[in-house]
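Supplementary Note 3. Input sequence used for the single-chain structure prediction.
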Amino acid sequence: MTAIAGNLPSSRPFLGRRVGLFYAVVLGASLPLWPFGWHLALHVAGAAMLIGNAVAMAVWLSVAGFLGSDDAKRRAAHAVNRADLWFTVPGTVLILLNGLAMVAARYGGPASIPSIPWIAGGLVLLILTGLVWALRLVPAQLAMQRLAASPGPLDAAGFRRLLVRWSIWGTVATVLPLLAVLLMTTKPTG
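The predicted structure, written as discrete structure tokens, is reproduced below.
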């Protein structure tokens, strides 16, 4: 928790009225008032947002960070944090809230989750993804953003160290939701 709290001041430039309005729409669209098909569509859209952003940002930041100029590194460090606000967070919210709405509609509510292995496994993988993202990726991203925002020449060695750490944990945070997609689509029973 201290990793998250210590990095909150670094995230302020990314927050704003448009982000808040977007999150309100995501939350409203995910209320358990809508038909099952609506929740399924938003659940799949959330997975596409989460995984798509993870892959796109991995490519973008890796190419810029390992091969690009200082200016490219600076832009990429900023873009990754902004993309998390617009894709990773709402994607995760769409997955979780619409998944819970579908569990309520088809399986009797959250109390049934432990008895359905593919749903329980998917939820565990989503939680693990969130923990890796919040405790490992975001601190590294915000540290890269701070380096990128500092005046003068970029601390290339420091940026590279952070990028290597981010790449390792980013791989973990990408594989976990891919495993969840496998569970959700194959629905193993035992």
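The CA atoms of residues 14 and 82 lie 6 Å apart. Confidence is low (pLDDT under 50) at residues 7-11.
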